[in-house]
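Case study B.
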Amino acid sequence: MKSVLPITALALASLGFALDGTVNIHDPSTIVQCNGKFYTWGTGGSGLVSDDGWTWRRGAQLPRRGLAPDVIHIGDRWYVYTAANIGAQPKAAVNMIWSKTLDPESPAYKWNEGGVVASSDGVEDSNAIDPGIFLDPTDGRLWLTYGSYFGYIRLVELNPKTGTRLNPNDTPVNLAINCEASDMMYHDGWYYLLATHGSCCRGADSGYNIRVGRSRRVTGPYLDAEGIDMIQGGGKLLIGSGGRVIGAGHFGLLDLGDGVQKFSMHWEADLDRGGASVLDIRPLLWKDGWPAAGENLKEGTYELESVRTGTSLEMAVEGVPVGGPRGRGGRGGPGRGGSTAPGGAAAPGGAPPGAGGRGSGGGMFAGTGAPIPPQDAAQVSANWPAGDIGARMANYLCQAQQKWAITAVSNAGGYPGSPYFKITTAGTDRALAATEDAELVVLPAFTGGPEQLWRIDQLADGSWRIMPKSVPNSKEALALSAVGSSFATLAKFDPKSDKQHWLIKTP
Amino acid sequence: MKLHRYTLAVLLAIAAAAQVAPATLTAPTTPAIAPDGQGFIPRWLLLEPIPVNGLTESAVQKIVKTDYFPNQYTVLPHDADKVTVGKTELTWHAVDTKLYNVNLYHFAHALGKPTSDVLFWAVTIVNSPREIPDVRLAIGSNAASVWWVNGKEVIGIYSDRQTVIDDGVSTRLTLHQGPNIVRAAIINGGGATDFCARFLDADDKPLKDYTVSLSEAGK
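Model:
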């Protein structure tokens, strides 16, 4: 249980933006959305709420203050499952409560007791805590996993109409061992069992890490990528410690629609928050049938390359070749045909014509003989127009108008996992913005308008969706779209099209 | 006009027979034509090439902003119309392409005209059965090109480049009911030269519900 993780696993996660506001929580329930707000509850029943999934604050407490609750919405009810010790561990029980809303301001906010749905007697190989609730999208059956390090992670079926145990006398199915904080999800014909391995509740010394196995049947067996059954301790790493955060636990799927999936979790210790246990949201990627933890975007200077076209977004100004214009000189020596024609003499800075073979001679292939420094805006922007400039696509040539600084904007809100960003031509304040006719423009300066704020979500394949916070005079959510090799626009996001998939690459 | 069509046909046939260049262009035989299966515009009026030099953005913009002949941004020429550029008389030719693209190398070579460091003007008329908003002109060209729809410049792509379908794409525009004039200036540096053009609808699907003619009466 306390085995040391491989070093490679430790390197998988790196520091992204931590969520903003009050994010202290332990064992968070799967983040859910109700009436436009995001909710989660942790051990002790303490709640967090957010208007946008980025900035969080304290929310209402649950009437049942148990261990590691989980929540699901079915029909007109929100069901919360929370566990409690009912004697010396591992004697425990999972209780259900339900309400028609999660919003305490709503008249419909009223929690009702639903009773015990699973329990452990203190002797059997089970500790009935850490519930995880799963509605099978293929048949509408409702399942509950639960358990901790004493004995097995178990599965029981619930009644989706009431949230209660379907057949209380049914024997639970054992799914996994040596883990806790289990949850399930379905993807492309497979059921996935997520569970947290490692040591809990030890701050920066916690070895918590989230692992996964999969099965064709909801009842298992759940095997990891090496074929090891989770009931024998198997599990493929989804996310472990990295950067300035330690101990990843309590996976919860946050499906935002349009193929954008994220997951909620907690870190046992955020070193930048004094080692506190905090909430986090990360992109959920898929690779070869396995989920993988993505990254929330970090600030930096990037090339924005279309997956569809391979061309890159640029401010529509005439580019200057890096290192300055060079003539099409001769090809060098006899290794490529002998002649230096049509350039005749060597290109500027090149070696003498005819001096050697291909790759070693003079002419157009010889280079300058010295490193060419990166091109920045200060070198080439003298003739850039002062006003609005269009945006377009071009082959990436390392030129200044093709490099974009992506910078988080303070106090501008955000979305699950990230703040809004501004996208400016690197080295300038010229800001990419949406126009009222749903096209793109580069403004002379960033002024903070919502059409200049960008939401950047990592998609299942690791590429990115780039969306303005809003488009003037439009209520429709639009995404940056490569409609042509040399032109980008804003269009409705289609997860099946490469047009709105972008690679964000370091220049 | 008949003589001219005959002349062009003979030239193209001769070129094909001599295997100097495949004949992909023919003289139109109908008043109007539908776009091809992929929505590409098959019928154009092409002006014999004008010698120019330069493919950079600034060079191309300077080239296309130069006055070569009267009303060059508004004229609706007819087959065999002639203009004088400098001291050279150049002729407009009506062509249909057999392919998705219009091969300007075939066009110029068959006429014994230069194919390198030249500017081609192209004009066509797209007859829309109704007003269609939120469409885009989508083109590819070898090499640089600038495009106008109903007199408004909508696309400019620059540098030495090959024809890629839907390379340059305009912002959203509205096709009027009836004739819409599409005009292009294609500048070649050297070697092959061609272009293709079509309209995309609001869902980026090729627009096919229109006809192409070379006079407003041909719709």
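Chain B has one domain: 2-218. The remaining cases will be described in the next quarterly update.
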